[in-house]
């Protein structure tokens, strides 16, 4: 009898949980899952005219993707740019998060707020700011010309892959600081003292204790940065030029001026698949490294 009552209460709790989650589940289904399913089905169709699509199942759009080198090249470039964006962002934000977690004794949240304050402005405004900084008449070229170090503006600062990497690294820095700081701040400081007592140097303590324990935050930061930057098309459009174009720009063009929805959908599906595989691989490798280091 008691087990029956427990089952009833358990089912009641489950029903309450699903009731509370239902708004979020509905939003996920209609805002994410449904468009994703439509995109996958569209990728197996054929664009006949400007307004007509042949719904006959075909893998022709995927064959078009792999038969045209431009698509594979843009996919590789997108992954490469996102990799360097992630690497640069981690190298610049990890020391900041480390300093706040271990050396700032008071008002840590104030430091976090101050570091993220510039990112409260519009994303487009920040991208245009980098155009001003890196442009021919921008801050860098004006300063160099003013000091007489150069006679004419440096044209290679803007409209290339480096400009895209710098701009995206700055745009996503705030999102990397938060998981890194949370992971570092949760580390038990007594473990560091024990490492020093055993004769380890500061670097050895960091490499053997601090860094392995902060890997969950590192993984979170990698995923937060890498996944959205692969699909970013605004930044490459504004500061990338021809050399900085990514696959997302091609997809936007296919859904726009080219009016080839099936090929655009197939390109998006392949990019999404690539990102998921890379994210899973990075997570797996990081966990293995963490296990070996610990």
Order of helices and strands: HEEHHHHHHHHHHHHH
Largest sheet: 2 strands, antiparallel
Specify the number of helices. 14
> What is the count of distinct domains?
1
Shape: globular
Q: Please state the average pLDDT score.
A: 86
The CATH topology label is MetI-like fold
Poorly predicted runs are none
Structural Rg: 24 Å
Distance from N terminus to C terminus (CA atoms, Å) equals 48 Å
What's the CATH class label? Mainly Alpha
CATH superfamily: MetI-like
What fraction of residues sit in β-strands? Answer: under 5%
List how many beta strands DSSP finds. Answer: 2
Helix/sheet category:
mainly alpha
Q: What oligomeric state is this?
A: single chain
**Taking strands numbered 1, 2, ... along the chain, how are they ordered across the largest sheet?**
1-2
Helix content: over 70%
What does this structure look like?
This protein has 14 helices and two strands. With 294 residues, it is mainly alpha-helical. It has one domain: Orthogonal Bundle (MetI-like fold). A two-stranded antiparallel ribbon has the order 1-2. The protein is globular, with a radius of gyration of 24 Å. The model has no long low-confidence stretch (mean pLDDT 86).
